[in-house]
Write a structure and sequence with these properties.
The chain is 48% helix and 15% strand. By secondary structure, the chain is an alpha+beta fold. It has a 7-stranded mixed β-sheet.
Length: 403
């Protein structure tokens, strides 16, 4: 391979199978765009969409091979998410959240994997990780109760990952975050998701009342050791050695990139055809010219950082090296920065469409709402994670437990 050929060679993670999955996502995006208005209005992704995503294998991208999954590189997963978001950010958001759960279930004891996938390896898991669950130790496990908010895609799933706190096993008395795995029979969904954006995600509340959770259906979320991740005994790929935060932090920000990309495309189509009430073409408006190019620049930069950071994460997992704290905190801040910056540019694009662009029939209006809703997720709290990194580099001890 000569230098010129090598320069344009595909990345090693872009296998023929990975490229095929990405092409499937590209093909589905226009259908999602057609369904997006109805999904937004009804507050629910259609069963048709979920079934199509399942049939195409999207939810298996990070699933262990021993359960019929593909164990693909996370960069493939997030490329798929961005492609889906060009059509509908709510669908891509649910894919991002629900799609990473097969990766985490692979860290649980083998019996937990059997519980979920033993009868049907396509069974889906939703989540809400906020540590509001109350767990009382009993023989063989815990009596578990609580109420959680923001469980995206929960109506399309049969199990849940729910957050709680338990004492660390080192007898220090300190508490740590634990993920509890609960079947559909043990929880109910409180239908209360009526919000500004990401309406079709159906991120309803979850209620559990005194359910028994066996020990094997718990996982110490931030314990990245082999002891804390017993599923690695069977699932030996480097993929399952990536720390939890490195996988999940991008699940709730990357759809913003695809949504902005879709908004840029829609803006180009609209601007070249639209003539305002005063006879001026949108394409000739300096504000439009500035908005579309600045959004394109920002999108390009954010995507480059995403793939560069994941190259570092993947290499660390393959070589058994842990990224240092400063880099982990910076990556956390960079992930949370995505909705803030894409939200700004979605706002500028919407502003440049003028008054007629604010009707709900304009897809950019929905992208504006969706991205700003996405900013409200705790993992996208830019100010908190920027300060966490800034504090650490200025000599203050890290207080961020997930990093």
């Amino acid at each position: 391979m000569n230098a010129v050929t090598e320069q344009f060679a595909p990345e090693s993670y872009l296998t023929p199978e990975a490229l095929e999955m990405i092409e499937k996502a590209k093909a589905l995006a226009p259908k999602l765009a057609e369904r997006s208005f109805k999904a937004d209005t009804e507050g629910r992704i259609s069963d048709e969409t979920i079934e199509e995503m399942t049939r195409e294998g999207f939810f298996r991208v990070l699933q262990p091979k021993r359960w019929g999954g593909y164990e693909m590189d996370p960069r493939v997963f997030y490329t798929i998410q961005m492609e889906l978001a060009k059509g509908c950010m709510s669908t891509a958001w649910v894919f991002g959240v629900v799609g990473v759960h097969p990766w985490q279930l692979a860290l649980f004891p083998a019996q937990a994997q059997q519980d979920v996938w033993g009868q049907d390896s396509s069974t889906r898991i939703a989540s809400t990780y906020m540590p509001t669950g109350k767990a009382v130790p009993v023989e063989g496990g815990y009596q578990f109760s609580g109420r959680w908010s923001f469980s995206s895609g929960s109506k399309h799933c049969d199990w849940l990952f729910l957050g709680g706190l338990l004492p660390k096993k080192d007898n220090s008395g300190a508490l740590e975050h634990v993920t509890f795995l609960v079947p559909k029979a043990d929880y109910r969904i409180e239908d209360n998701w009526d919000v500004l954006g990401l309406r079709a995600t159906g991120s309803h509340d979850i209620v559990v009342e005194n359910a028994f959770v066996p020990e094997h259906r718990t996982q110490r979320t931030n314990d990245h050791s082999d002891v804390g991740c017993p599923g690695r005994l069977e699932n030996t790929s480097w993929l399952f050695r990536i720390p939890f935060t490195h996988v999940f932090q991008r699940a709730v920000s990357t759809s913003c990139l695809g949504a902005l990309d879709g908004a840029i495309g829609e803006f180009k189509r609209r601007a070249t055809a639209h003539v305002g009430k005063h006879g001026n073409r949108t394409a000739e408006d300096p504000n439009s010219q500035t908005a579309v190019t600045e959004a394109t620049i920002a999108l390009d930069q954010l995507k480059l950082v995403l793939f560069r950071n994941y190259a570092r994460i993947v290499n660390a997992a393959k070589t058994g090296v842990q990224l240092d704290l400063e880099e982990r905190l910076l990556q956390r801040a960079q992930a949370s920065y995505v909705p803030k910056l894409t939200g700004f540019h979605a706002s500028e694009l919407l502003r440049a469409t003028a008054a007629s662009g604010t009707f709900r029939t304009n897809p950019i209006e929905r992208v504006f709402r969706d991205i700003h809703q996405g900013r409200s997720h705790i993992a996208n709290n830019t100010d908190a994670y920027v300060r966490a990194h800034g504090s650490q580099v200025l000599g203050i001890a890290n207080q961020e437990p997930f990093v």
